Amino acid sequence: MRILVTNDDGIYSPGIAALAKVAKNFGEVRVVAPDVEQSSMGHAVTHSRPLAYKKSPIEFPDIEAHRVNGTPADCVAMGMHLWKNVDVVLSGINMGPNLGNSMWHSGTLAAAKQAVLFGVKGIALSTPVGKDEPDFEHLETYVSKTLELLLKNNELALYNVNFPPDPTDIAWTRQSVRLYDGTIVPGTDPLGRKHYWFTVTPLDPAEEGTDRWAIENNMVSITPLRLDLTDEKILNEKSHF
After folding, report:
1. Strand pairing of 158-162 and 121-127?
2. Tens digits of per-residue pLDDT, 79-114?
3. Most buried pick, 45, 64, 107, 217, via CB within 10 A?
4. Binding-site residue ranges
């Protein structure tokens, strides 16, 4: 199995090193990641300038690794162009969760979506981050269990996976969809100039069976997704007029 590993945190992220390490147990791995952090980049692609594909400045033991001066989606496009017959794209492990509404702007998930657009299975993997860096070594067992579950066939599919800091089980979930939880927080810099932070506000406990609910209950959340965004309910209602 040929496994392309990427992320949106950049080539230096400990999360991509942890994912590549586990992925080696399932096949031949190559890393292609952004040269700088591209968090919340969504599914942006670069079309107004050329892309550079260079050897990684850090070593991934026994893995060929490169960096790209572009977005996560760019990295998948470049990686699959230069390394033929990729079987699956793994994106992550992201430093921060990608749950509920955050899927819409996630660069981590966008990389997995780009794989599916090219006809290859895509899996996005994320974990919350607090004051300290996530304990990726502690997560390794459940990362391996999750990949074993999702890589056992060659179906074309898109999965969004989130790991709690201390997993106890794995749950199949649906996306937690609520009103957008983003907010603008104004402030001033040391010189008194106005600036603004785009951030999130805490939400109430999630509905049972959703991705947020699984993480709140220390379970790995696996949410199967699809590229078709059509609202079938509204379409069926309108088609009768």
Report:
1. parallel
2. 999 999 999 999 999 999 999 888 998 999 999 999
3. 107
4. 8-9, 39, 94
